[in-house]
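Predict structure. Chain length: 308.
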Amino acid sequence: MDRLFYEATDLDRDAQLRTRENWRELLLAEKNVKILICHGGDPLFAWPEDMNEHELVVVGSPALPHLDLEIERANWIYIGRQGGEAVIAIDIEPVISDRDDAIRRLGGGFGDMRSRMAALSEDEAALAAQARAIFNWHHKHRFCGVCGHPNHVMEAGYRLQCSNPVCGTPHFPRTDPAVIMLIHHNDHVLLARSPQFLPGTVSVLAGFVEPGETLEQAVAREVFEEVGIRVKRARYIASQPWPFPGSLMLGFVAEAETTDIVIDEKEIEFAMWVHRDDVAGLPEKGINLPRPISIARYLLENWREGRI
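Prediction complete.
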């Protein structure tokens, strides 16, 4: 089975260097450091969104003094080393809150990350996705959840520390586990449409894991809640980081014990059973499959080909 999109396979996260207070100075002194520029977690592309070009902007440390912004006030994180080269990400939103102003100063564009990321290489997308997840966590946890004081960014972005000396609570990145499951029965697969999907798109079912719940229990609960079907033999296949905003998608396949569909109309617009041989032809009928970069498509294609 192929590598999943957003999966960083050649990344040394270099946790030891993160703990050095002077990590930024050490890395900027290196010859081949790579720097991603982001705004609100979204990476900078070399071309505006309406030009349909999707080249990621990566600069070296000598370029930083020439940027038209106070780069020291930006939010910095250290992603790690890819192929031996250090990768830093800088979010300039604290310096320039207006994204249009940032584009005027820097050129290029940020645009919609979901659509633009799919055109990147797997390695570039993995780095940008990691940066987006960390920056999103920073944005949502600017204040301590225990006492309400501001948090300080520590350990190259991977720890937030409460500024209140009486509290001093450390906070670490949050990853929300979600199950995504392909349900099958007698060479048929269950596909459904959620109102949040792109127009005309169907996919497999998914949902977040609740506290005190195993992954297998989450699979069974979500399927029954959304389409009224009981399942058995849930089997783990693979996982995918999903930076929208910071989830880990845990992929399963499971067999249906019942086949009558009773949808939850708040969650699902419609659901249907599709024969294995008919899946590939759905787009010809105006029904779109999940995007190729998604674990949903990964599960569907591997099931259709009999690999899982």
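Summary: The chain has a mean pLDDT of 94.
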